[in-house]
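Ligand: nicotinamide-adenine-dinucleotide. Inputs:
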Amino acid sequence: MKLHGKSVLVTGAASGIGRAIARRVANEGPSVVVCVDKNESGASAVSNEIAAAGTPSYSVAVDLADREAIELLASVVTERSGGTDVLFANAGVSFGGGLDTLEEAWQTSWEVNVMAQVRLARSFLPGMIERGGGYIVNTASAAGLLTNLGGLSYSVTKHGSVALSEWMAITHARDNIKVSVLCPMGVRTNMLFPEEGRQNEEHRLAQAAVLEAGDVLEPEVVADKVLEAMDAEQFLILPHESVRGFYSFRANDTDKWIASMARYQQRLGGA
Ligand SMILES: NC(=O)c1ccc[n+]([C@@H]2O[C@H](COP(=O)([O-])OP(=O)(O)OC[C@H]3O[C@@H](n4cnc5c(N)ncnc54)[C@H](O)[C@@H]3O)[C@@H](O)[C@H]2O)c1
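Predicted complex:
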């Protein structure tokens, strides 16, 4: 799908991958780019920058863990710009930790990484169908196809995001709704490189695993790959080509895959 003339909404637009996607999309001549984030000043800085360069854009501050706030977002967007043709459900959270992960961290991961994508689709899909079709890109992670060493709640919820995307791609093909799921490995953003002092042991393990497994891509490179894949309407967006090999290894010889991942984890010191 080409984005020229389309009404586009990006969540997690205040920083990292979402900001890069919003900026990249703005170059394609969309009718509007709506920047959504709980970080109000970050999202408005991005929409102001896009608008100053000549593409209509505005921001909406939303906590995507809040169901009612997402419903309100849909009515604000319908009123201000008539709906959304292309939805990037990109915002996400990551908590390091295993079975000891706090209930609150599980809940936030579930709300933001999975339910926000369900609720955004529920809110925006009927309008897309009415207009004859649309495109939804959910950001999951390579952790949604493989596993995230040191990050249990992240692995589980990102698998949920991949499952949701696959289900929607199959079920709404009849409505001319295209769906893609973005599954990168390491990307240079605040999530992978948090501020000093905000990392725990598990986060350090997750970071070490990602840094050793492949290149860390710049968010701009990921945004380019996303638009290329949308042009070709590919379901699986893998900015790191090696993830395809890991994914097929996992499917073809799951026991060997698990044994090799366990050795990898022990080598990284996360036994
Ligand atoms: N950075 C990586 O290595 C990497 C790898 C794979 C997948 N991802 C995924 O990419 C997506 C974007 O993350 P990023 O790497 O750009 O990190 P980031 O921290 O730079 O951006 C995440 C954005 O989401 C927003 N956000 C978080 N919780 C929110 C909430 N409740 N309501 C509204 N906004 C919220 C944050 O304010 C932030 O602007 C996430 O879904 C993440 O899981 C990142």
